[in-house]
Each structure stands twice: as structure tokens, then as C-alpha cells.
TrEMBL record:
Organism name: Pseudomonas borbori
Family under the similarity heading: Belongs to the citrate synthase family.
Annotated GO CC locations: cytoplasm
InterPro entries per record: Citrate_synth-like_lrg_a-sub, Citrate_synth-like_sm_a-sub, Citrate_synthase, Citrate_synthase_AS, Citrate_synthase_bac-typ, Citrate_synthase_sf, Citrate_synthase_typ-I
One GO-annotated biological process of the protein: tricarboxylic acid cycle
Catalytic activity: oxaloacetate + acetyl-CoA + H2O = citrate + CoA + H(+)
Annotated active site: H306, D364
Name of the protein: Citrate synthase
Alphabetized Pfam families for the sequence: Citrate_synt
GO molecular function, one term: citrate synthase activity
Entry keyword set: Transferase, Tricarboxylic acid cycle
């Protein structure tokens, strides 16, 4: 992996040779681990030029707009696979055989219920608490119930925790919604598939069990696939950092949920709908694009831009197709927010500011319109992102713990006071 070398010439010091490591695809990396011997650190706020780890799970080519999960393009997984099969792939590295898939699906089904006492945690929240605040709390609280699978050095415990988290996130997410509605929480059903079960727990009540639309369930499953993993993004890096201290998996996933909540990250899907509401009408688009371009205005066009993609986000393309399918299936022919979103995309993508900065719609731009059409309230959008991303987070957590690792502990460039004496 390291047959090439970089040479660092530091004035007045001997040149430093740094190995260059080559992956299977994508950019080489310069291994700077030996740099500390020179008494210097690299400096890279926001990790714009930093590879934090080696991974085999997901590959992104931002220039080509390519996203691969264990080598398979996201477009093919969205079209031909389903979410639980994609979960198996992310967790285990290969697609399951029919028998492996049946066993995996059965295992997940048999872990979808949560401890009855977990319901009491919800009562401490106001009914109008943001669902992501509740999810941070109740997911972290899972570690109080599963003492039998918290030994992170034990591969079996890691496996059990991964299954429990993938299985229970839809149940907890739906419980969060029901709590906000003041409706009874619905138990999961083993006769439904993963996405159907989630929609059942969200929208059915003890008074009436309506059949789940297969089209909406398929759209939900596709949305889960499109959000499943995305390399070393902010929330995944948070989970890896928390995991590197030896924290239990439930605490690590709770940390990932907290990081995802931010509007610059997973909170953007909720922010897109709020932005479209604020724009209100096509006639206001130019004013908002001007705000987005104004350096003195903190407003950014939500759902646009990406740290890695400098081409179209492949997930946004699939999401837009799914959006058209769902709205057509629901007979929604003139969704004003979709019209507005499409017009906004058209205008933004002809504007030099966005073209020069390669700002394209990202995964969050269209997802909210589909979720709203399915009947999911805006405040639940990021919860659904967290539900779907849990398998990515836990796959990276497992990958890190499965080989030698060190606690993540970055250093800094200190620009504060040098030592001074306290003279009272
Ligand atoms: C996700 O990392 C992942 O993989 C994340 C994710 C995943 O699956 O985990 O893909 C999910 O988080 C998608 C992104 C969702 N966020 C949004 O839609 C919020 C709006 N987007 C921006 O906040 C921004 O584009 C980021 C945060 C996504 C990326 O920010 P970067 O990489 O730090 O880029 P930047 O802020 O340095 O922007 C470069 C330039 C700047 O202008 P200049 O200083 O060069 O003049 O582009 C401008 C920015 O001001 N810019 C925008 C903009 N995004 C960037 N200007 C207006 N509107 C925007 N949306």
C-alpha cells in the first residue's frame, strides 16, 4: 500500500519522508503519522484535506457523482435491492444468499420491540419536544437496558447490538411521533416488512389497522436505502470518535443522532421545507438566491451544496425520480412545493455563483417533498434520516472495532496566552 513517498522540506531541518498510501479506488493519502517526531502537527480545521481512517464500506467520487456501497452503485441498490438487504451488505461486506437474507430478516423482526419500561422515558418530555431531542435521549437510554451486549471487545456483543439498533430504530422513531400526537404507541408487527412496519407504527391506531400502501412502503424503503451510509460524514465521524473511547454502541449512536441534527447536515431536509415555505412563491426565488449569494447574509440555500459532491449527488437524482413516482401514485399532480423546488433548482443551476462553486441539489433537497406526501410531518424528517443512517453508523463502528485502533485525539494550533503568573 505504501510504495510511493512524499518528501517534506522544512527550512533548517532535515527533509521528512512520508509514505503515500494507495487505496483500491480514489485519491492516495499521505501518511503523516510520523510527523509528530518533527514536533509539528498537520493543521486542517473541518478536515477538508484529511482522511481520518481506512474503510471498505462506502466510496464516494465527488467529481463523478459516484456513490458505492461495498462496490455496488447506489442507483442499482435503490432499484434492485431493499433496505434490509443493503443493511446486510453494509454490515457484512457481501450481499446475502437467500438463506442468509431470510435469517437476517427474521433476526431483525425478532428484535423490533423495545423494553416496556422504555415508554416511561417519553413521559419526561413535553409533547411538543423536537423528535430529535427525544431520539437522542431514548437511543442513549437503550444502554441502560442491554447490559448483556455492551462488551465492545466481544464480536458477538457487537453483532447483537448492531441487530438491536437496526431493528429498534423504526419502533423508537414511530413512538416519538405517536408521543407528539398524544396517540397510543403501536407495537411492531412481524407479518410486515421493515418499511411497511414503520408506516404501520406511524399511522395506524388501535382503533383502525389500515393496509399499508405498497407504493408508499416501497418509496419509504428506497428513502432508507438512499440514506443508509455516506463515508466519513460529520455524524459518522462522531460515532467513530465516540466509539474510539470504548463507549457502548447505544451511546455512540446517540452521539451520531445529535451530530446529524444540525441543519448543515441531516437537519437540512427539514430546513428545505421551511425554506420553501418561506420562499412561498416562484416570484420570490430571485430574492432568496440573492440572499444565498450575499456574504453578509447567513442564509444558505438548504438542500444545495456538499463537501464532497462537486457534481450531482446521485442520491438526489434517484430521490427526484421517487418523488415523481410517489406524487403520481398519490394523484398529486400540482404539488406547489415541488413546483417551487423544481423552479428553484432550474434557476440556481443557471446562476454563475452556484455553477462556479459546483452547488447542486443534495440528498436532502427532494426527500422532504416525498416524506410530506407520505404524510410524515416535517419535524420527523431528520428522525427518518437517523433511522436509515443507523446501519451506516454501526457498520463503521463495527469496522473500527474489528481491527486495531487508537482513541481519536486531535491536537491544535494554540494561539492563546503563553504561561503567565497569577499575581493576586
Ligand atoms: C448532508 O458529508 C456528507 O456526506 C453529508 C450527507 C450524508 O449523507 O451524510 O451527504 C448529508 O449533510 C448533505 C448536506 C445537507 N446540508 C445542506 O443542504 C445545507 C446547505 N449546504 C451548505 O451548508 C454547504 O453546502 C455544506 C455544509 C453542505 C457544505 O459546506 P462546505 O463543504 O464547508 O462548503 P463551503 O461552506 O465552504 O461552501 C463553499 C462555497 C462558499 O462560498 P465562498 O466562501 O467560496 O464564496 O459555496 C458556498 C459557501 O458560501 N455555499 C453555498 C451553499 N453551500 C455552499 N452558498 C449558498 N447556499 C448553499 N447551500
Amino acid at each position: 500500500m505504501a510504495d510511493k513517498k512524499a518528501q517534506l522540506i522544512i527550512e533548517g531541518a532535515a527533509p521528512v519522508e512520508l509514505p503515500i498510501l494507495t487505496g483500491t479506488v480514489g485519491p492516495d493519502v499521505i501518511d503523516v503519522r510520523s510527523l509528530t517526531a518533527t514536533g509539528r502537527f498537520t493543521f486542517d480545521p473541518g478536515f477538508m484535506s484529511t482522511a481520518s481512517c481506512e474503510s471498505k464500506i462506502t466510496y464516494i467520487d465527488g467529481d463523478q457523482g459516484i456513490l458505492l456501497h461495498r462496490g455496488y452503485p447506489i442507483e442499482q441498490l435503490a432499484e434492485q435491492s431493499d433496505y434490509l438487504e443493503t443493511c446486510y451488505l453494509l454490515l457484512n461486506g457481501e450481499l446475502p444468499t437467500a438463506e442468509e437474507k431470510a435469517r437476517f430478516v427474521s433476526t431483525i423482526k425478532n428484535h423490533t420491540m423495545v423494553h416496556e419500561q422504555l415508554k416511561t422515558f417519553f413521559n419526561g418530555f413535553r409533547r411538543d419536544a423536537h423528535p430529535m431531542a427525544i431520539m437522542c435521549g431514548v437511543v442513549g437510554a437503550l444502554s441502560a437496558f442491554y447490559h448483556d451486549s455492551l462488551d465492545i471487545k466481544n464480536p458477538h456483543h457487537r453483532e447483537v447490538s448492531a441487530m438491536r439498533l437496526v431493528a429498534k430504530m423504526p419502533t423508537l422513531a414511530a413512538m416519538t411521533y405517536k408521543y407528539s400526537m398524544g396517540q397510543p404507541m403501536m407495537y411492531p408487527r412481524n407479518d410486515l416488512n421493515y418499511a411497511e412496519n414503520f408506516l404501520h407504527m406511524m399511522f395506524n391506531t388501535p382503533c383502525e389497522i389500515k393496509p399499508i400502501s405498497p407504493v408508499l412502503a416501497k418509496a419509504m424503503d428506497k428513502i432508507f436505502i438512499l440514506h443508509a451510509d455516506h463515508e466519513q460524514n460529520a455524524s459518522t465521524s462522531t460515532v467513530r470518535l465516540a466509539g474510539s473511547s470504548g463507549a457502548n454502541p447505544f451511546a455512540c449512536i446517540a452521539a451520531g443522532i445529535a451530530a446529524l441534527w444540525g441543519p448543515a447536515h441531516g437537519g437540512a431536509n427539514e430546513a428545505v421545507l421551511a425554506m420553501l415555505d418561506e420562499i412561498g412563491d416562484v416570484s420570490n426565488i430571485d430574492a432568496f438566491i440573492a440572499k444565498a449569494k450575499d456574504k453578509d447574509d447567513p442564509f444558505k440555500l438548504m438542500g444545495f451544496g456538499h463537501r464532497v459532491y462537486k457534481n450531482r449527488d446521485p442520491r438526489a437524482t434517484v430521490m427526484k425520480q421517487t418523488c415523481d413516482e410517489v406524487l403520481k401514485e398519490l394523484g398529486i399532480t400540482d404539488d406547489p412545493q415541488l413546483e417551487l423546488a423544481m423552479r428553484l433548482e432550474e434557476i440556481a443551476l443557471t446562476d454563475p455563483y452556484f455553477i462556479e462553486r459546483s452547488l447542486y441539489p443534495n440528498v436532502d433537497f427532494y426527500s422532504g417533498i416525498i416524506l410530506k406526501a407520505i404524510g410524515i410531518p416535517t419535524s420527523m424528517f431528520t428522525v427518518i434520516f437517523a433511522l436509515a443512517r443507523t446501519v451506516g453508523w454501526i457498520s463503521h463502528w463495527k469496522e473500527m472495532l474489528s481491527s486495531p485502533y487508537k482513541i481519536g485525539r486531535p491536537r491544535q494550533l494554540y494561539t492563546g496566552y503563553p504561561q503567565r503568573d497569577l499575581k493576586k
